[in-house]
Amino acid sequence: MIRLKQLEKVFQTKTQNVAAVQNVELSIEEGEIFGIIGYSGAGKSTLVRMLNMLEPPTSGSVEVSGQDLTKLRGQKLREARQDIGMIFQHFNLLWSRTVAENIAFPLEVAGVDKAERETRVHELVGLVGLEGRESAYPSQLSGGQKQRVGIARALANRPKVLLCDEATSALDPETTDSILQLITNINQELGLTVVMITHEMHVIRKVCHKVAVMENGGVVEQGPVLDVFQRPQQEVTKGFVKQIAAPDDEQAEAEGIAPPERGQLARLSFVGASAGEPVVSRLIRTVEVDVNILQGRLATTVEGSYGTMLVHIDGTAKAVEEAFQYLEKAGVEAEVVRVD
Ligand SMILES: Nc1ncnc2c1ncn2[C@@H]1O[C@H](COP(=O)(O)OP(=O)(O)OP(=O)(O)O)[C@@H](O)[C@H]1O
């Protein structure tokens, strides 16, 4: 659906050249919610703005539905852009226009006649749950309602792709959840491909199927959300993952725990199906060990759950060995933790 090849953006300022995006290779499949996460200055906004040519790339290509947008000009580019809707952190609404008039705006630009515009606006108002607020002005709306207008406006011309640039960063946690839920519903109902730029890991966790991590203008890691969460490779990714499930400091986790007289301390990592199963209770019924849970965290993503648990597996050396074998067969990663 979207293919980025060797994508680069260099900004030339008076004093220096800033490589905001460097050598990005990315594939986003149709119907996917794809998250791009990174700290401030990583290049996320520049990258997403190149997906609809709001920012022309310095080099590389941006293919959307088989068309290289970097090769299009004038009318052809405007038409291709109609397939790509966008929403923004600060909504970018027209303050002198009502909700209905804001939503109608892209339809006017596209030359849709009045009767058709009214029907479409009515549909969109229903889709984003703003019935009864059609005549309100943006200043009379809450942040969540403003973003609903932004979403309806972005969807007016029935795009195939929705770009979300920090779309929930200005909202409180509850409103964030309701907007994320709306985006998920739209993705499922309309089969829309969604690209979400964020610096918040819980946004990725709650809605995204895949994630790419950006640092210094490049994509340093990417893959299915569960894989990246469970086995982060880069330090920056580990930092993001810790925001939601892992302990602040792996060592601190085991601090204050005395070395067991018998058995082993183990860190169990659950992912996908194993996270939803009573593996530990089955283990103690199957193998001659006791399992004492010392710490545990579990997080849920759209693709399943994952988490870690620090346990003391108590038993004879042979039984503990069997317990590790049992866990491996059950699809749970078990790693011995040493405390001195
Ligand atoms: N128009 C511009 N001119 C010069 N430098 C720019 C311009 N736009 C962005 N940059 C620089 O490019 C780099 C990436 O910026 P970008 O806004 O894409 O990052 P970001 O990850 O979206 O961060 P933030 O969330 O803070 O916007 C930064 O160093 C920024 O200063």
UniProtKB/TrEMBL annotation:
Residues 2-241 form the ABC transporter domain. SMART domains: AAA, NIL. The keyword Membrane applies. Gene3D superfamilies: 3.30.70.260, P-loop containing nucleotide triphosphate hydrolases. One of its GO terms (cellular component) is plasma membrane. PROSITE patterns: ABC_TRANSPORTER_1, ABC_TRANSPORTER_2. GO terms for molecular function: ATP binding; ATP hydrolysis activity. InterPro entries: AAA+_ATPase, ABC_transporter-like_ATP-bd, ABC_transporter-like_CS, ACT-like_dom_sf, MetN_ABC, MetN_ABC_transporter-like, NIL_domain, P-loop_NTPase. PANTHER family: AMINO ACID IMPORT ATP-BINDING PROTEIN (PTHR43166), METHIONINE IMPORT ATP-BINDING PROTEIN METN 2 (PTHR43166:SF36). Belongs to the ABC transporter superfamily. This is D-methionine transport system ATP-binding protein. It comes from Salsuginibacillus halophilus. The lineage of its organism: Bacteria, Bacillati, Bacillota, Bacilli, Bacillales.
